Amino acid sequence: xxxxxxxxxxxxxxxxxxxxxxxxxxxxxxxxxxIHDRSARVAGGLxxxxxxPGDRVVVMxxxxxxxxxxxxxxxxxxxxxxxxxxxxxxxxxxxxxTDSGAKAAIISPELAxxxxxxxxxxxxxxxxxxxxxxxxxxxxxxxxxEPRADDDLAALLYTGGTTGRAKGVxxxxxxxxxxxxxxxxxxxxxDTTRSLLPLPLSHAYGLIVTIGGLHADRRPVSVLQxxxxxxxxxxxxxxxxxxxxxxxxxxxxxxxxxxxxxxxLSSLRSxxxxxxxxxxxxxxxxxxxxxxxxxxxxxxxxxxxVVSAETVEDHRPGSVGKPLPHAEVAxxxxxxxxxxxxxxxxxxxxxxxxxxxxxDLTARTVRDGWLHTGDLGRLDEDGFLYVxxxxxxxxxxxxxxxxxxxxxxxLLEHPAVQVxxxxxxxxxxxxxxxxAAVQLAPGQxxxxxxxxxxxxxxxxxxxxxxxxVVLDAVPLTSVGKIDRKSVRVLFTx
Length: 493
What we know:
By secondary structure, the protein is an alpha/beta fold. The chain is built from 15 helices and 26 strands.
Protein backbone atom coordinates (compact mmCIF):
# COMPACT_ATOMS: atom_id res chain seq x y z
CA UNK A 1 0.00 0.00 0.00
CA UNK A 2 1.45 3.36 -1.04
CA UNK A 3 2.83 5.54 1.74
CA UNK A 4 1.00 8.52 0.21
CA UNK A 5 -2.51 7.12 0.65
CA UNK A 6 -4.41 9.82 2.59
CA UNK A 7 -6.39 7.19 4.51
CA UNK A 8 -3.10 5.68 5.67
CA UNK A 9 -1.96 9.16 6.71
CA UNK A 10 -5.09 9.56 8.87
CA UNK A 11 -4.53 6.11 10.42
CA UNK A 12 -0.90 6.93 11.17
CA UNK A 13 -1.90 10.24 12.76
CA UNK A 14 -4.29 8.45 15.14
CA UNK A 15 -1.68 5.79 16.00
CA UNK A 16 0.93 8.49 16.64
CA UNK A 17 -1.12 11.03 18.60
CA UNK A 18 -3.67 8.77 20.30
CA UNK A 19 -7.16 9.54 21.57
CA UNK A 20 -7.71 13.06 22.94
CA UNK A 21 -10.14 15.98 22.74
CA UNK A 22 -9.19 17.33 19.33
CA UNK A 23 -12.16 19.23 17.87
CA UNK A 24 -14.61 21.68 19.47
CA UNK A 25 -17.80 22.56 17.64
CA UNK A 26 -20.79 24.49 18.93
CA UNK A 27 -20.55 23.54 22.59
CA UNK A 28 -19.16 20.03 22.27
CA UNK A 29 -15.73 18.43 22.20
CA UNK A 30 -15.05 15.49 19.90
CA UNK A 31 -12.13 13.16 20.46
CA UNK A 32 -9.73 12.02 17.76
CA UNK A 33 -10.83 8.45 18.53
CA UNK A 34 -14.47 9.32 17.89
CA ILE A 35 -13.64 10.91 14.53
CA HIS A 36 -11.43 7.94 13.61
CA ASP A 37 -14.06 5.34 14.53
CA ARG A 38 -16.90 7.20 12.80
CA SER A 39 -14.88 7.58 9.58
CA ALA A 40 -14.10 3.86 9.51
CA ARG A 41 -17.81 3.05 9.95
CA VAL A 42 -18.92 5.56 7.32
CA ALA A 43 -16.37 4.01 4.93
CA GLY A 44 -18.00 0.64 5.55
CA GLY A 45 -21.44 2.15 4.97
CA LEU A 46 -20.35 3.71 1.68
CA UNK A 47 -19.02 0.37 0.46
CA UNK A 48 -22.26 -1.35 1.48
CA UNK A 49 -24.13 1.18 -0.66
CA UNK A 50 -22.03 0.33 -3.71
CA UNK A 51 -19.39 3.07 -3.59
CA UNK A 52 -16.30 1.61 -5.25
CA PRO A 53 -12.69 2.84 -5.52
CA GLY A 54 -12.54 5.81 -7.87
CA ASP A 55 -16.20 6.76 -7.46
CA ARG A 56 -16.83 10.44 -6.77
CA VAL A 57 -18.63 11.27 -3.53
CA VAL A 58 -19.89 14.84 -3.16
CA VAL A 59 -19.46 16.47 0.25
CA MET A 60 -21.69 19.55 0.44
CA UNK A 61 -21.89 20.87 3.97
CA UNK A 62 -21.43 23.90 6.11
CA UNK A 63 -18.40 23.38 8.37
CA UNK A 64 -19.28 20.58 10.79
CA UNK A 65 -17.30 17.69 12.33
CA UNK A 66 -18.96 15.41 9.76
CA UNK A 67 -16.82 17.02 7.06
CA UNK A 68 -13.69 15.60 8.75
CA UNK A 69 -15.45 12.25 9.17
CA UNK A 70 -16.63 12.18 5.54
CA UNK A 71 -13.29 13.08 3.94
CA UNK A 72 -11.47 10.35 5.83
CA UNK A 73 -14.23 7.83 5.18
CA UNK A 74 -14.25 8.49 1.45
CA UNK A 75 -10.48 8.07 1.21
CA UNK A 76 -10.68 4.92 3.35
CA UNK A 77 -13.19 3.50 0.86
CA UNK A 78 -10.82 4.38 -2.01
CA UNK A 79 -13.31 6.90 -3.42
CA UNK A 80 -12.80 10.51 -4.48
CA UNK A 81 -13.72 13.48 -2.26
CA UNK A 82 -15.70 15.98 -4.33
CA UNK A 83 -16.21 19.03 -2.11
CA UNK A 84 -18.85 21.56 -3.12
CA UNK A 85 -19.14 25.01 -1.54
CA UNK A 86 -22.72 25.46 -0.38
CA UNK A 87 -23.20 28.88 -2.01
CA UNK A 88 -24.34 27.47 -5.37
CA UNK A 89 -27.25 28.13 -7.66
CA UNK A 90 -29.24 25.16 -8.94
CA UNK A 91 -27.71 25.34 -12.48
CA UNK A 92 -24.15 25.62 -11.07
CA UNK A 93 -24.69 22.67 -8.76
CA UNK A 94 -26.34 20.53 -11.44
CA UNK A 95 -23.35 21.14 -13.73
CA UNK A 96 -20.98 19.87 -11.01
CA UNK A 97 -23.13 16.84 -10.22
CA THR A 98 -23.53 15.93 -13.89
CA ASP A 99 -19.94 16.61 -14.90
CA SER A 100 -18.42 14.70 -11.96
CA GLY A 101 -20.70 11.68 -12.41
CA ALA A 102 -21.03 11.52 -8.63
CA LYS A 103 -22.14 8.16 -7.23
CA ALA A 104 -23.11 9.41 -3.77
CA ALA A 105 -23.34 12.58 -1.70
CA ILE A 106 -23.15 13.57 1.97
CA ILE A 107 -24.95 16.84 2.66
CA SER A 108 -26.13 19.14 5.44
CA PRO A 109 -29.87 19.13 6.17
CA GLU A 110 -30.11 22.86 5.39
CA LEU A 111 -28.96 22.11 1.85
CA ALA A 112 -31.21 19.13 1.15
CA UNK A 113 -33.83 21.02 -0.86
CA UNK A 114 -31.20 22.72 -3.04
CA UNK A 115 -29.27 19.50 -3.57
CA UNK A 116 -32.25 17.30 -4.35
CA UNK A 117 -33.58 19.91 -6.79
CA UNK A 118 -30.25 20.13 -8.62
CA UNK A 119 -29.68 16.38 -8.60
CA UNK A 120 -33.14 15.31 -9.74
CA UNK A 121 -32.96 12.31 -12.08
CA UNK A 122 -29.21 11.77 -11.67
CA UNK A 123 -29.54 8.74 -9.40
CA UNK A 124 -27.12 10.02 -6.72
CA UNK A 125 -27.41 8.13 -3.42
CA UNK A 126 -27.74 10.89 -0.85
CA UNK A 127 -27.04 10.85 2.90
CA UNK A 128 -28.23 13.77 5.06
CA UNK A 129 -26.24 14.45 8.22
CA UNK A 130 -28.43 14.34 11.33
CA UNK A 131 -31.08 12.26 9.61
CA UNK A 132 -31.69 8.53 9.42
CA UNK A 133 -29.82 8.08 6.14
CA UNK A 134 -26.49 9.22 7.62
CA UNK A 135 -27.07 7.47 10.96
CA UNK A 136 -27.57 4.21 9.08
CA UNK A 137 -24.44 4.90 7.04
CA UNK A 138 -22.25 4.92 10.16
CA UNK A 139 -24.00 2.12 12.04
CA UNK A 140 -22.20 -0.79 10.41
CA UNK A 141 -18.83 -2.44 10.84
CA UNK A 142 -15.63 -0.39 10.41
CA UNK A 143 -13.95 -0.81 7.03
CA UNK A 144 -10.28 -1.35 6.32
CA UNK A 145 -8.25 0.90 4.01
CA GLU A 146 -8.60 0.45 0.26
CA PRO A 147 -5.18 0.43 -1.47
CA ARG A 148 -4.52 3.44 -3.72
CA ALA A 149 -1.64 4.39 -6.02
CA ASP A 150 0.27 7.67 -5.63
CA ASP A 151 -1.38 9.23 -8.67
CA ASP A 152 -4.85 7.83 -8.06
CA LEU A 153 -7.50 10.51 -7.80
CA ALA A 154 -8.09 11.65 -4.20
CA ALA A 155 -10.08 14.83 -4.71
CA LEU A 156 -12.01 16.50 -7.52
CA LEU A 157 -12.44 20.21 -6.80
CA TYR A 158 -14.49 22.51 -8.98
CA THR A 159 -13.04 25.97 -9.53
CA GLY A 160 -13.33 28.95 -11.84
CA GLY A 161 -17.06 29.49 -11.52
CA THR A 162 -16.62 33.29 -11.45
CA THR A 163 -15.04 33.27 -14.93
CA GLY A 164 -17.19 30.65 -16.63
CA ARG A 165 -18.48 27.15 -15.96
CA ALA A 166 -16.68 25.53 -13.05
CA LYS A 167 -14.02 23.05 -14.14
CA GLY A 168 -12.99 19.97 -12.17
CA VAL A 169 -9.40 19.92 -10.92
CA UNK A 170 -8.03 16.41 -10.37
CA UNK A 171 -5.72 16.08 -7.36
CA UNK A 172 -3.88 12.86 -6.52
CA UNK A 173 -3.08 11.26 -3.19
CA UNK A 174 0.63 12.06 -3.33
CA UNK A 175 0.11 15.67 -4.36
CA UNK A 176 -2.22 16.39 -1.45
CA UNK A 177 0.00 14.37 0.92
CA UNK A 178 3.11 16.38 -0.04
CA UNK A 179 1.29 19.70 0.04
CA UNK A 180 -0.12 18.92 3.48
CA UNK A 181 3.32 18.02 4.77
CA UNK A 182 4.70 21.33 3.53
CA UNK A 183 1.94 23.23 5.29
CA UNK A 184 2.54 21.24 8.47
CA UNK A 185 6.18 22.35 8.51
CA UNK A 186 5.00 25.97 8.39
CA UNK A 187 2.66 25.29 11.33
CA UNK A 188 5.58 23.84 13.31
CA UNK A 189 7.49 27.08 12.81
CA UNK A 190 4.64 28.93 14.54
CA ASP A 191 5.01 26.60 17.56
CA THR A 192 1.25 26.59 18.08
CA THR A 193 -1.20 23.74 18.62
CA ARG A 194 -4.53 25.50 19.30
CA SER A 195 -6.21 26.88 16.19
CA LEU A 196 -9.53 28.35 15.09
CA LEU A 197 -10.82 27.14 11.70
CA PRO A 198 -13.17 29.64 10.00
CA LEU A 199 -12.34 28.60 6.42
CA PRO A 200 -14.87 26.69 4.33
CA LEU A 201 -13.49 23.14 4.48
CA SER A 202 -14.94 22.57 1.00
CA HIS A 203 -12.39 25.00 -0.48
CA ALA A 204 -8.88 23.88 -1.46
CA TYR A 205 -7.35 26.02 1.33
CA GLY A 206 -9.63 24.49 3.97
CA LEU A 207 -9.05 20.98 2.59
CA ILE A 208 -5.26 21.26 2.76
CA VAL A 209 -5.42 22.64 6.31
CA THR A 210 -7.22 19.45 7.37
CA ILE A 211 -4.57 17.31 5.64
CA GLY A 212 -1.75 19.37 7.16
CA GLY A 213 -3.12 18.55 10.60
CA LEU A 214 -2.65 14.83 9.87
CA HIS A 215 1.12 15.42 9.61
CA ALA A 216 1.35 17.07 13.05
CA ASP A 217 3.98 15.82 15.51
CA ARG A 218 2.07 17.24 18.51
CA ARG A 219 -1.61 16.96 19.35
CA PRO A 220 -3.38 19.72 17.38
CA VAL A 221 -6.56 21.15 18.89
CA SER A 222 -9.05 22.87 16.58
CA VAL A 223 -12.15 24.95 17.18
CA LEU A 224 -14.44 24.92 14.14
CA GLN A 225 -16.80 27.68 13.02
CA UNK A 226 -19.84 26.61 10.97
CA UNK A 227 -19.12 29.69 8.86
CA UNK A 228 -16.97 32.73 9.44
CA UNK A 229 -18.52 35.23 11.82
CA UNK A 230 -16.08 37.90 13.07
CA UNK A 231 -17.79 38.52 16.42
CA UNK A 232 -18.03 34.79 17.06
CA UNK A 233 -14.40 34.33 16.01
CA UNK A 234 -13.23 36.81 18.66
CA UNK A 235 -15.36 35.18 21.36
CA UNK A 236 -13.99 31.71 20.56
CA UNK A 237 -10.37 32.89 20.65
CA UNK A 238 -10.92 34.43 24.07
CA UNK A 239 -12.88 31.47 25.46
CA UNK A 240 -10.51 28.72 24.29
CA UNK A 241 -7.20 30.66 24.44
CA UNK A 242 -6.53 29.95 20.78
CA UNK A 243 -3.13 30.73 19.29
CA UNK A 244 -3.52 30.83 15.53
CA UNK A 245 -6.04 30.84 12.68
CA UNK A 246 -5.80 30.30 8.91
CA UNK A 247 -7.69 33.12 7.20
CA UNK A 248 -8.17 34.91 3.89
CA UNK A 249 -7.48 38.67 3.73
CA UNK A 250 -11.18 39.58 3.73
CA UNK A 251 -11.53 37.82 7.09
CA UNK A 252 -8.65 39.82 8.54
CA UNK A 253 -10.22 43.03 7.27
CA UNK A 254 -13.55 42.11 8.87
CA UNK A 255 -11.86 41.27 12.18
CA UNK A 256 -10.01 44.59 12.24
CA UNK A 257 -13.36 46.38 11.96
CA UNK A 258 -14.62 44.73 15.19
CA UNK A 259 -14.48 46.25 18.73
CA UNK A 260 -11.36 44.27 19.66
CA UNK A 261 -10.96 45.80 23.12
CA UNK A 262 -14.03 43.86 24.27
CA UNK A 263 -12.13 40.54 24.08
CA UNK A 264 -9.00 39.07 25.65
CA LEU A 265 -6.96 38.09 22.59
CA SER A 266 -3.62 37.79 24.39
CA SER A 267 -3.31 34.08 23.48
CA LEU A 268 -3.07 34.87 19.75
CA ARG A 269 0.39 34.45 18.26
CA SER A 270 -0.03 34.18 14.50
CA UNK A 271 -2.26 34.18 11.46
CA UNK A 272 -1.74 32.16 8.31
CA UNK A 273 -3.07 34.14 5.34
CA UNK A 274 -3.84 32.58 1.96
CA UNK A 275 -6.49 32.32 -0.72
CA UNK A 276 -5.76 35.83 -2.03
CA UNK A 277 -2.91 38.31 -1.83
CA UNK A 278 -2.71 40.14 1.49
CA UNK A 279 -2.49 43.95 1.11
CA UNK A 280 0.56 45.31 3.00
CA UNK A 281 -1.56 47.88 4.89
CA UNK A 282 -3.85 45.13 6.20
CA UNK A 283 -0.91 42.95 7.24
CA UNK A 284 0.81 45.83 9.03
CA UNK A 285 -2.36 46.82 10.87
CA UNK A 286 -3.15 43.23 11.88
CA UNK A 287 0.33 42.65 13.28
CA UNK A 288 0.17 45.88 15.23
CA UNK A 289 -3.38 45.57 16.55
CA UNK A 290 -3.32 41.85 17.40
CA UNK A 291 0.37 41.72 18.37
CA UNK A 292 0.95 38.70 16.14
CA UNK A 293 3.03 37.52 13.19
CA UNK A 294 1.07 37.23 9.95
CA UNK A 295 2.54 34.60 7.64
CA UNK A 296 1.46 34.67 4.03
CA UNK A 297 1.33 31.76 1.61
CA UNK A 298 0.57 31.22 -2.05
CA UNK A 299 -1.05 28.49 -4.04
CA UNK A 300 -4.00 27.58 -6.20
CA UNK A 301 -6.35 24.64 -6.50
CA UNK A 302 -4.33 23.29 -9.45
CA UNK A 303 -1.19 23.13 -7.26
CA UNK A 304 -2.86 21.11 -4.47
CA UNK A 305 -3.56 24.39 -2.69
CA VAL A 306 -0.10 25.49 -1.53
CA VAL A 307 3.16 26.32 -3.32
CA SER A 308 5.03 28.65 -0.99
CA ALA A 309 4.70 30.04 2.52
CA GLU A 310 6.52 32.17 5.03
CA THR A 311 7.72 30.72 8.31
CA VAL A 312 8.40 32.48 11.58
CA GLU A 313 12.14 32.13 10.97
CA ASP A 314 12.04 33.01 7.27
CA HIS A 315 9.72 35.77 6.12
CA ARG A 316 10.04 39.00 4.20
CA PRO A 317 7.54 41.89 3.84
CA GLY A 318 5.62 41.75 0.58
CA SER A 319 6.55 38.18 -0.25
CA VAL A 320 4.55 34.98 -0.05
CA GLY A 321 7.54 33.08 1.29
CA LYS A 322 9.84 30.56 -0.30
CA PRO A 323 8.61 27.56 -2.31
CA LEU A 324 7.94 24.57 -0.06
CA PRO A 325 10.05 21.42 -0.55
CA HIS A 326 7.52 19.72 -2.85
CA ALA A 327 7.26 22.69 -5.26
CA GLU A 328 9.72 24.08 -7.79
CA VAL A 329 8.96 27.60 -9.03
CA ALA A 330 10.18 29.36 -12.18
CA UNK A 331 9.30 32.78 -13.60
CA UNK A 332 8.77 32.35 -17.35
CA UNK A 333 7.86 34.49 -20.35
CA UNK A 334 5.35 33.29 -23.01
CA UNK A 335 8.17 31.50 -24.88
CA UNK A 336 9.22 29.56 -21.79
CA UNK A 337 12.35 31.57 -21.02
CA UNK A 338 13.32 32.40 -17.44
CA UNK A 339 12.80 36.12 -16.81
CA UNK A 340 12.98 38.48 -13.85
CA UNK A 341 9.23 39.21 -13.87
CA UNK A 342 6.72 37.01 -15.65
CA UNK A 343 4.31 34.15 -15.17
CA UNK A 344 4.67 32.06 -12.02
CA UNK A 345 5.07 28.43 -13.10
CA UNK A 346 5.16 25.45 -10.75
CA UNK A 347 6.52 21.92 -11.09
CA UNK A 348 6.39 19.00 -8.68
CA UNK A 349 4.13 16.30 -7.22
CA UNK A 350 1.53 18.86 -6.11
CA UNK A 351 0.66 19.79 -9.69
CA UNK A 352 -2.81 18.58 -10.61
CA UNK A 353 -3.35 15.40 -12.58
CA UNK A 354 -5.34 17.51 -15.03
CA UNK A 355 -8.77 19.01 -15.64
CA UNK A 356 -11.60 16.48 -15.48
CA UNK A 357 -12.84 15.60 -18.98
CA UNK A 358 -10.80 18.42 -20.57
CA UNK A 359 -7.47 17.20 -22.01
CA ASP A 360 -7.15 20.28 -24.25
CA LEU A 361 -7.30 22.74 -21.34
CA THR A 362 -4.95 20.48 -19.37
CA ALA A 363 -2.42 20.55 -22.22
CA ARG A 364 -2.61 24.36 -22.39
CA THR A 365 -2.20 24.77 -18.64
CA VAL A 366 0.48 22.15 -17.87
CA ARG A 367 3.29 22.31 -20.43
CA ASP A 368 6.51 20.28 -20.16
CA GLY A 369 5.56 19.49 -16.57
CA TRP A 370 5.15 23.16 -15.61
CA LEU A 371 1.81 24.39 -14.29
CA HIS A 372 1.18 27.84 -15.77
CA THR A 373 -0.66 29.65 -12.98
CA GLY A 374 -1.79 32.80 -14.77
CA ASP A 375 -0.20 34.85 -11.99
CA LEU A 376 2.53 37.43 -12.56
CA GLY A 377 5.39 37.35 -10.11
CA ARG A 378 9.12 37.40 -9.41
CA LEU A 379 11.72 35.65 -7.26
CA ASP A 380 14.33 37.65 -5.37
CA GLU A 381 17.97 36.68 -4.95
CA ASP A 382 17.20 34.76 -1.76
CA GLY A 383 14.39 32.70 -3.30
CA PHE A 384 11.41 34.58 -1.87
CA LEU A 385 8.41 34.65 -4.18
CA TYR A 386 6.42 37.84 -4.85
CA VAL A 387 3.01 37.85 -6.54
CA UNK A 388 2.46 40.94 -8.66
CA UNK A 389 -1.10 40.29 -9.90
CA UNK A 390 -3.32 38.04 -11.99
CA UNK A 391 -2.37 38.28 -15.67
CA UNK A 392 -6.02 38.52 -16.71
CA UNK A 393 -6.60 41.42 -14.28
CA UNK A 394 -3.84 43.57 -15.80
CA UNK A 395 -5.20 46.95 -16.95
CA UNK A 396 -3.60 48.49 -20.05
CA UNK A 397 -4.31 52.23 -20.01
CA UNK A 398 -3.00 54.14 -23.00
CA UNK A 399 -0.26 51.55 -23.52
CA UNK A 400 0.86 51.56 -19.87
CA UNK A 401 0.46 48.49 -17.65
CA UNK A 402 -1.46 49.10 -14.42
CA UNK A 403 -1.60 46.35 -11.81
CA UNK A 404 -4.84 46.52 -9.78
CA UNK A 405 -3.02 45.48 -6.60
CA UNK A 406 -0.85 48.62 -6.73
CA UNK A 407 -3.96 50.78 -6.74
CA UNK A 408 -5.76 48.72 -4.10
CA UNK A 409 -2.76 48.79 -1.75
CA UNK A 410 -2.69 52.60 -1.91
CA LEU A 411 -6.44 52.97 -1.33
CA LEU A 412 -6.16 50.66 1.69
CA GLU A 413 -3.66 53.06 3.23
CA HIS A 414 -6.53 55.51 3.68
CA PRO A 415 -7.82 55.13 7.25
CA ALA A 416 -11.47 55.05 6.13
CA VAL A 417 -11.09 52.20 3.60
CA GLN A 418 -11.64 48.59 4.67
CA VAL A 419 -11.82 46.83 1.25
CA UNK A 420 -10.73 48.03 -2.19
CA UNK A 421 -11.19 46.56 -5.66
CA UNK A 422 -9.62 48.02 -8.79
CA UNK A 423 -10.61 47.04 -12.34
CA UNK A 424 -10.33 48.30 -15.88
CA UNK A 425 -13.34 49.89 -17.58
CA UNK A 426 -13.46 49.92 -21.39
CA UNK A 427 -12.49 53.34 -22.73
CA UNK A 428 -12.64 54.49 -26.36
CA UNK A 429 -9.64 56.78 -26.12
CA UNK A 430 -7.26 54.85 -23.84
CA UNK A 431 -8.41 51.26 -24.28
CA UNK A 432 -9.11 50.93 -20.56
CA UNK A 433 -9.60 53.37 -17.72
CA UNK A 434 -8.58 52.68 -14.12
CA UNK A 435 -11.55 52.67 -11.73
CA ALA A 436 -12.12 51.31 -8.22
CA ALA A 437 -14.81 50.37 -5.72
CA VAL A 438 -14.28 50.59 -1.98
CA GLN A 439 -16.03 49.56 1.21
CA LEU A 440 -15.53 51.85 4.20
CA ALA A 441 -14.74 50.71 7.72
CA PRO A 442 -17.62 51.01 10.21
CA GLY A 443 -18.11 54.59 11.40
CA GLN A 444 -15.79 56.05 8.74
CA UNK A 445 -16.66 58.58 6.05
CA UNK A 446 -15.04 59.42 2.73
CA UNK A 447 -16.29 60.38 -0.71
CA UNK A 448 -15.22 58.92 -4.00
CA UNK A 449 -13.72 62.26 -5.03
CA UNK A 450 -11.62 62.39 -1.84
CA UNK A 451 -10.28 58.91 -2.50
CA UNK A 452 -9.41 59.76 -6.11
CA UNK A 453 -7.34 62.68 -4.82
CA UNK A 454 -5.75 60.50 -2.14
CA UNK A 455 -4.66 57.96 -4.76
CA UNK A 456 -3.56 60.64 -7.21
CA UNK A 457 -1.11 62.04 -4.65
CA UNK A 458 0.53 58.63 -4.22
CA UNK A 459 0.45 57.03 -7.67
CA UNK A 460 1.91 57.83 -11.10
CA UNK A 461 -0.34 59.86 -13.37
CA UNK A 462 -1.29 56.88 -15.56
CA UNK A 463 -2.06 54.67 -12.53
CA UNK A 464 -4.45 56.48 -10.25
CA UNK A 465 -8.18 55.66 -10.53
CA UNK A 466 -10.26 58.29 -12.36
CA UNK A 467 -13.35 57.15 -10.49
CA UNK A 468 -13.86 55.58 -7.07
CA VAL A 469 -17.31 54.46 -5.96
CA VAL A 470 -18.20 53.78 -2.33
CA LEU A 471 -20.27 50.62 -1.83
CA ASP A 472 -21.98 49.17 1.21
CA ALA A 473 -20.04 45.99 0.49
CA VAL A 474 -17.47 45.17 -2.19
CA PRO A 475 -18.55 41.90 -3.88
CA LEU A 476 -16.64 38.84 -2.69
CA THR A 477 -16.60 35.25 -3.90
CA SER A 478 -17.76 32.38 -1.70
CA VAL A 479 -14.22 32.02 -0.33
CA GLY A 480 -13.64 35.69 0.43
CA LYS A 481 -11.75 36.84 -2.66
CA ILE A 482 -12.66 40.08 -4.42
CA ASP A 483 -15.13 39.21 -7.17
CA ARG A 484 -13.63 41.34 -9.94
CA LYS A 485 -16.14 40.08 -12.48
CA SER A 486 -18.99 41.57 -10.42
CA VAL A 487 -17.05 44.78 -9.85
CA ARG A 488 -16.47 45.15 -13.59
CA VAL A 489 -20.19 44.70 -14.20
CA LEU A 490 -20.90 47.57 -11.77
CA PHE A 491 -18.81 49.91 -13.89
CA THR A 492 -19.76 48.68 -17.35
CA UNK A 493 -23.46 48.89 -16.54
